[in-house]
């Protein structure tokens, strides 16, 4: 068989195509392995990057305000965070999810400092000490290091029935890039309500602060029932917080004195009015960023009416000033009588001019 020029061209073409195909296969193979690679907490790279958003820089935020809210789980609107108390069909309430993430060292939690939250390693909560403090039974599963220890907690030992509220720390931000004002949830704190040995009112024990950015990828994987009339699980825990489907009452704002509303306002009526004032301030700040284009000329019209009315008043006041200057000649006793006669004559002339078609200036000339 003779090798012709045609055969040589075909071989050269194949040699040129093969490296490209191999390179494409390697690129696809690397991207698939990268997407499926998991970190130490069991999240894939895709799951980590799915909820990463480009946060504005400090130069783009000229105004912020820290707000602390209390979510009461006894209210009907907040019950999706409490129920079910037990695991049903793989569905867990929020506290079970948080405690499970903490016990398996998937997230880091921080001390509750009452308004001085510092999310650094120095204030990181030690899981074993926290479980001992709140009398939660556990079983230690030792790891290679102390930080890698995991804690097995039985379902019946999780005090879900005592976590009756949550503290939420949020920050209201004005982003001048988009000229929008919106809230961002920074952290969540479960609160235990426990009654003492001798009864009485339940005492609140804040457990820990969990950064919302750390728990958000896990909350987005749990669907919940948000309505008694519709039992389809359409929303996740992340949707519940991001869409602000909860009802949270303000109990504190970030201030220089680091005081709550109860400390600033002693009576419940004063506290309610202060909460209403804060809510109105937040809503008014958002509304003040925009201009109503439907009725933009209402204010100018009102100003024009006011200006025209003042001009008419000024014109109406001018003839009186002229009469007073003319009547100032002579003595004061004699000046009053001519003023009355002149005003009466003007009224007669005006009445006669209104009856006839003759103009007023002709009457003044004849005089």
Describe the structure.
With 367 residues, the protein is an alpha+beta fold. Among the domains are: 48-254, no CATH class; 339-367. Helix content is 42%, strand content 19%. The chain contains eleven helices and eleven strands. The protein has helices at 5-36, 45-50, 94-103, 127-133, 212-219, 237-242, 261-264, 268-287, 298-326, 332-355, 360-366; strands spanning 63-72, 109-110, 139-141, 150-152, 163-175, 180-196, 199-206, 209-211, 223-224, 235-236, 248-253. Strands 1, 2, 5, 6, 7, 8 and 11 form a seven-stranded antiparallel sheet that branches. It has a two-stranded antiparallel sheet with strand order 3-4. It has a two-stranded antiparallel sheet with strand order 9-10. It starts with a helix and ends with a helix. Mean pLDDT is 78; it is low at 23-35, 299-311 and 313-367.
Lay out the secondary structure.
Blueprint: H1 5-36, H2 45-50, E1 63-72, H3 94-103, E2 109-110, H4 127-133, E3 139-141, E4 150-152, E5 163-175, E6 180-196, E7 199-206, E8 209-211, H5 212-219, E9 223-224, E10 235-236, H6 237-242, E11 248-253, H7 261-264, H8 268-287, H9 298-326, H10 332-355, H11 360-366
Antiparallel strand pairs: 1-5, 1-11, 2-8, 3-4, 5-6, 6-7, 6-8, 9-10
Distance between the termini: 139 Å
Number of strands: 11
Q: Which band does the percent of strand residues land in?
A: 15-25%
Number of helices: 11
Structural class estimated from helices and strands = alpha+beta
Please state the overall shape, judged from the principal axes of the Cα atoms: extended
Low-confidence stretches: 23-35, 299-311, 313-367
Overall average residue pLDDT? 78
**Helix-residue proportion:** 40-55%
Q: Name the helix and strand elements from N-terminus to C-terminus, one letter apiece.
A: HHEHEHEEEEEEHEEHEHHHHH
Kindly provide the radius of gyration, computed on alpha-carbon positions and rounded to a whole number of angstroms. Answer: 39 Å
